[in-house]
């Protein structure tokens, strides 16, 4: 796999080999998939109706309705959401890795942020009007000269008291194969908005995991031997392990990605907020972007593609306090994340202070079909 990018539109190196092959992920029966599909269509129609209602609601109620719709839609897909750490309720630039269209639902479900999306989303049926009514900010990726105006809109939104969520990698990628990372990493332009508005930056990691082991796939390896090489795609994901089943990559159609998610059994999306970064007035946006990227990709990917050298790994992590304990799911034992006590850190040349976010914890989220 090779990673391509240009100055404005980064492209990951992902292809079909980054996705699980047949039988490598647990699946629900076809009847269950069709039931989920009907539920998703109902939620999309409800979203179209909400698009007319949201503009007349007060801001607080508008955020609550949009958050409830996102949670309900995730549940319709059969996806369980888990929120870890302290997600912002106050003005902050939320920056996250990007693997799937599900990322947007996950963020909307756990934080009242306005999302930065590509301009084409505005024209999507059903989803487009809801995105506009929900306060989505749009960027025209075909016009690089429009980028400064987009940065100014983000800064203005932060000054007005709204969190803003962006995906600085500029495209989706599997997050599993080291050679697939989009060239250039986190694009620094949007970080200038946080510097200009004096708003903190909250790096967020979005991860996909399976709660069940696959029922099919290649046979197990002999005791003490190496795992068998799959005929196609990545090795089968163990129960509770990371998976790319929710990813939306490359030339794959949206319909195929949606059907794979509808078919998945036990898919969990975890949204983890790390320590907030507080840039000073003299902060360098490029350094801020690299620090945020290191926080998001703090743990190197565990799944590597054959033939990818170790030098292609994600950027070297910086010392960042770990996220707060996981918010437990109904009926499930809570899982605590370790907390590393570190004092506030200031890098003189970058003007960036790193310390735990002070926002209130996000509400408990636990949704499953």
Any overview of this molecule?
The chain is of the alpha/beta class and 369 residues long. The protein is 27% helix and 14% strand. It contains eight helices and twelve strands. The chain has helices spanning 30-53, 59-76, 102-110, 127-133, 147-159, 191-197, 254-263, 285-296; strands spanning 4-5, 10-11, 80-84, 93-96, 114-118, 137-139, 164-166, 201-210, 267-273, 276-279, 345-347, 352-355. β1 and β2 form a beta hairpin. α1 (30-53) runs antiparallel to α2, α2 packs across α3 and α5 (147-159) packs across α6.
Give descriptors for this structure.
globular, three-stranded antiparallel sheet, seven-stranded mixed sheet, 8 helices, 12 strands, alpha/beta, 369 residues, disordered C terminus, disordered N terminus
Layout of SSEs?
Blueprint: E1 4-5, E2 10-11, H1 30-53, H2 59-76, E3 80-84, E4 93-96, H3 102-110, E5 114-118, H4 127-133, E6 137-139, H5 147-159, E7 164-166, H6 191-197, E8 201-210, H7 254-263, E9 267-273, E10 276-279, H8 285-296, E11 345-347, E12 352-355
Parallel strand pairs: 3-9, 4-7, 4-8, 5-6, 5-7
Antiparallel strand pairs: 1-2, 8-9, 10-12, 11-12
Helix pairs in contact: 1-2, 1-4, 2-3, 5-6
Mean of all residue-level pLDDT scores: 76
Work out the helicity level. Answer: 25-40%
Question: How would you spell out the order of helices and strands?
Answer: EEHHEEHEHEHEHEHEEHEE
Class per helix and strand makeup: alpha/beta
Please state how the strands of the largest beta sheet are arranged side by side: 3-9-8-4-7-5-6
Q: DSSP strand (E) fraction?
A: 5-15%
Biggest beta sheet summary: 7 strands, mixed
